[in-house]
């Protein structure tokens, strides 16, 4: 009986962590489509915790400030799968694309982030095969 309970607990934890990653998959898809690269979550997030954003991930704070992306995503998710998917494909992706334009023009050591992305100089990026 203990094994069955442990299995349910593990499955529940997996389900919870999978749900939190759903919002970012919309960002990842848009990023990969724009830059024609393969991106891991570690482009923006720490390997140990997706709650910790790295330097590149933090660049999106300013252009997304006040957009309430996470709050709206959670509301859409609570409303149901159809609503969540519609929000991700609509407003969420649109706002992220605008933020990518802003971040792409920012510079690090005299080089734009767009160039750093295209030349795979940001950790977690690979050439699309």
User: What composes the largest sheet?
Assistant: 2 strands, antiparallel
Could you report the average pLDDT, rounded to the nearest whole number? 85
- Poorly predicted parts: 6-23
Query: Shape, please?
Result: globular
Looking across the biggest beta sheet, what order are the strands in?
1-4
Rg over CA atoms: 17 Å
Number of helices: 6
Helix-strand pattern? HEHHHHEEHE
Domains (count): 1
Strand content: 5-15%
Helix fraction bin: 55-70%
Distance between the termini: 47 Å
Task: Determine the oligomeric state from the structure.
Answer: single chain
Query: What class would the helix/strand composition place it in?
Result: mainly alpha
Extended strand count: 4
Notes on the structure:
There is one protein chain. The protein has 129 residues and is mainly alpha-helical. It has one domain (23-127). The protein is built from six helices and four strands, in the order αβααααββαβ. The chain has helices spanning 2-35, 55-58, 61-64, 69-79, 81-105, 113-118, and strands at 37-39, 107-108, 111-112, 125-127. Strands 1-4 form a two-stranded antiparallel ribbon. It has a two-stranded antiparallel sheet with strand order 2-3. Strand 2 (107-108) and strand 3 (111-112) form a beta hairpin. Helix 1 packs across helix 5 and helix 4 packs antiparallel against helix 5 (81-105). The radius of gyration is 17 Å and the shape is globular. Mean pLDDT is 85; it is low at 6-23.
């Amino acid at each position: 009986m203990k094994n069955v309970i442990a299995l349910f607990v593990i499955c529940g934890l997996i389900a919870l962590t999978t749900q939190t990653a759903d919002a970012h998959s919309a960002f990842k898809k848009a990023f990969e489509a724009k830059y024609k690269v393969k991106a891991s979550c570690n482009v923006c997030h720490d390997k140990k915790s997706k709650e910790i954003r790295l330097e590149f991930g933090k660049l999106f704070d300013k252009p997304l400030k006040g957009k309430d992306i996470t709050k709206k995503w959670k509301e859409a998710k609570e409303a149901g799968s159809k609503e969540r998917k519609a929000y991700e494909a609509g407003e969420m992706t649109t706002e992220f694309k605008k933020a990518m334009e802003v971040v792409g023009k920012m510079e690090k050591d005299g080089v734009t982030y767009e160039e750093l992305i295209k030349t795979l100089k940001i950790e977690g990026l690979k050439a699309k095969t």
